[in-house]
Automatic annotation (TrEMBL):
One of its GO terms (biological process) is proton motive force-driven ATP synthesis. The keyword Kinase does not apply. Residues 41-103 form the V-ATPase proteolipid subunit C-like domain. The lineage of its organism: Eukaryota, Metazoa, Spiralia, Lophotrochozoa, Platyhelminthes. GO terms for molecular function: lipid binding; proton transmembrane transporter activity. It comes from Hydatigena taeniaeformis (Feline tapeworm). It is a multi-pass membrane protein. Coiled coil: none annotated. It is found in: Mitochondrion membrane. This is ATPase protein 9. The keyword Transmembrane applies. Its main location: mitochondrion. InterPro entries: ATP_synth_F0_csu, ATP_synth_F0_csu_DDCD_BS, ATP_synth_F0_csu_sf, ATPase_proteolipid_c-like_dom, F/V-ATP_Csub_sf.
Length: 107
């Protein structure tokens, strides 16, 4: 691993050995399992935003129906606002899904 010089070994004594043991911990099987579990937990937490996106889309179109029922004359304006709300909500859901895939496969 690292070269140990006799002078450093006599001056430091047993102080230098825990650093080597600590370095070996990062390559152990338990450490890789913990990292993999953390990736799965992070990806699961990132996908919660997709459910929020679905709820937002439902809310947008539900309010479109209610607004159209109250004032049919504003059909075009309400529909354009609904499409804008749908696009923004869907984009947030796709960003959450993209982050989940990045956590799983890029890191």
């Amino acid at each position: 691993m690292f070269p140990t010089f006799p002078l450093v070994k006599t001056l430091l004594g047993s102080v230098a050995t825990p650093a080597f043991a600590w370095k070996n911990l990062h390559t152990s099987t338990a450490r890789r399992d913990i990292d993999q579990a953390a990736k799965y937990i992070g990806a699961g937490a990132a996908t919660i935003g997709v459910a929020g996106s679905g709820a937002g889309i439902g809310s947008v179109f539900g309010n479109l129906v209610m607004g159209y029922a109250r004032n049919p004359g504003l059909k075009q304006q309400l529909f354009s606002y609904a499409i804008l709300g749908f696009a923004l909500s869907e984009a947030m859901g796709l960003f959450c899904l993209m982050m989940a895939f990045l956590i799983l496969y890029a890191f």
